[in-house]
Amino acid sequence: MADSNRLEAARQRLLQAFQSTKSSPPDVHAVTFQPLGWDSNADRMVTERWTIRGQQWLFLAVCDGHGGSCTSQYTIETLPHRLRSALKRVVCKRFGGRIDRSNLDVAGVYVASMFEVEIVEFDRTLKRAVRELCPNPRELSKEQAEQLLLDHEEIFLRAFQGTTLVLALINVDLHFMWAAGVGDSSVALSTTNTAGSRSVELLCKHHTFTDPQEYYRTIMAHHSSEQNVVDHDNRLLGLLRMSRAIGDLPFKMERAYTRHLFQYFPDYNPQSLARLAEKVML
User: What pTM did the predictor assign?
Assistant: First the structure.
């Protein structure tokens, strides 16, 4: 009986530690584990098969959430539909209903641009939702802020928390693909040559401050009076290791939102958020 109880307890701990998904045929199975038992798994994944004008597409995406799972969950639930609709518009309006080897060079530019536009716009929707609910955070009392967060918890949490994103879009029929990434997660292509040797190619660069281009892009976006935007440990304001992410609006919006609204989230340290607000020069 004791062994049975331990086995069931182990099963329950395992269920809390991983996320899994499976696409429709062709089958693609995906699983992610959170190895740290003291923290919940904020990773989210999606594997979908799309049919657009008779062509079969496979869409794969992984979001590595931080600060919680609201942003990663919302991204996985919402962004794939936006990207599918945008891909359909590109295929139907620009390329007569079909992307193939004859128009791939031109189509590749359109699809890559579509990814960038849609992902950036998706992130902006998180900011707009916050502004619509709270256009003037400085006017809030503590009680009003707490009530606003309680009434619209999901909307504010998915803006406050953050996530990386990596995705791959594969044309199943003709065997070509696109990849995109935001943050420091990786998407890679593993291939085997005729001799049986395997090689791996990283398809998207990491958005971190160890990349000189990302470092200088971030520094040059700020006024010279703003000191220590990136610290000696390559962290944004001493906190965030990645230079780009979805969400994380305390780093992107005026400090008034953190000082008068976000700091009243019940599950976050108000002193830490107050220190963050002091570092934001807005």
Answer: 0.86
